[in-house]
Amino acid sequence: KYYEPHQVGFQSANSGGKIPLGLKSKTLRIVVTGGAGFVGSHLVDRLIARGDSVIVVDNFFTGRKENVMHHFKNPRFELIRHDVVEPLLLEVDQIYHLACPASPVHYKHNPVKTIKTNVVGTLNMLGLAKRVGARFLLTSTSEVYGDPLQHPQVETYWGNVNPIGVRSCYDEGKRTAETLTMDYHRGAGVQVRIARIFNTYGPRMCIDDGRVVSNFVAQALRKEPMTVYGDGKQTRSFQYVSDLVEGLMRLMEGEHVGPFNLGNPGEFTMLELAQVVQETIDPNARIEFRPNTEDDPHKRKPDITKAKNLLGLGT
Ligand code: NAD
Ligand code: UDP
Ligand code: UDP
């Protein structure tokens, strides 16, 4: 008798997902790289609640122990301080590969480290997936579309990316990570999944993280002016973190490689976002215009038709 991978907790790249019952325990062993960060820690909460065994691998560059501390006494939880740029030996069934700073302020802080994390770190985790026959999910980004010339962005769009700009360590890094992921899939039969994540917000974002939602909220609470970069007419689409985690888990458990856009298509200018913060926190909160950062995408909005149809999301 054969069982689906999620029922027996074991998959092999060559098994087509069909493994005889009794070879492995029913608990899935899952690595979450970057699991002490904002998105990763919410994913860990859901996986632990589902009954899986979770190993978080994190170098604490932007992540914090506090985000996962509530699992320390759980025997199904393990935390390893490790930099994914170095090889790592583990025996697992699934790898959620999130390790990478996500805020422009953080990823521009040490650009060479950022691209090493995206390229060498992803290579190592794919090497691990190949060796143990684990399924591998890459958290890529809407930044692969660069400053998009197509709006909204569909997965078939190849993007408009500056290869030598200050954001390139992140967006070209993620593009290379996608390439590596597809090459391990085609060349070595590794089971892979690719998510292109659009701007996400929610609890556990670092208050000094530099991203727009946390900046505006923190500034309004501190009675400081909200810093709008440029003319504030650039747009973004924001999704709540629990929706993203649902999407990541459905993608991992489903049968489609992707890439899939995971985001909320509601599109706002940064001035509109500042207004929402005024209405929510402080009607007297002031706005201060600052020069914009280099290569800031003018607009961004996901087309999520594919995720709706194939992953049953957003319904
Ligand atoms: P985050 O900065 O909160 O989390 C990233 C985690 O990775 C941190 O815990 C950090 O310490 C860890 N990390 C960084 N470099 C590492 C390394 N070399 N080795 C080991 N650990 C390392 O960011 P997040 O918002 O949680 O983003 C998680 C993932 O989702 C990232 O891959 C990011 O690119 C992607 N993503 C996020 C968004 C978003 O809006 N939050 C949008 C698009 C893509
Ligand atoms: N790797 C790893 N853990 C493993 C297996 C591989 O970190 O369990 C690393 C390995 O050190 C290498 C990378 O993954 O740098 C790619 O491994 P692969 O076997 O695909 O390539 P090769 O080692 O043959 O270059
Ligand atoms: N932004 C802003 N004020 C801030 C931080 C960001 O106006 O204090 C703008 C930024 O120029 C960009 C948008 O908000 O157009 C989203 O920036 P963020 O860093 O959150 O994410 P990005 O989508 O650029 O990765």
Automatic annotation (TrEMBL):
Function per UniProt: Catalyzes the NAD-dependent decarboxylation of UDP-glucuronic acid to UDP-xylose. Necessary for the biosynthesis of the core tetrasaccharide in glycosaminoglycan biosynthesis.
Residues covered by region (Disordered): 287-315
EC number annotated for this UniProt entry: 4.1.1.35
Biased composition annotated in UniProt, kind: Basic and acidic residues: 287-306
Recorded family membership: Belongs to the NAD(P)-dependent epimerase/dehydratase family. UDP-glucuronic acid decarboxylase subfamily.
Residues annotated as signal peptide: none
Pathway involvement of the protein, from the record: Nucleotide-sugar biosynthesis; UDP-alpha-D-xylose biosynthesis; UDP-alpha-D-xylose from UDP-alpha-D-glucuronate: step 1/1
Enzyme class (EC, first level): lyase
Keywords: Decarboxylase, Lyase, Membrane, NAD, Transmembrane, Transmembrane helix
Keyword Transmembrane: yes
Protein name: UDP-glucuronate decarboxylase
Boundaries of every NAD(P)-binding domain copy: 32-309
Swiss-Prot/TrEMBL cofactor(s): NAD(+)
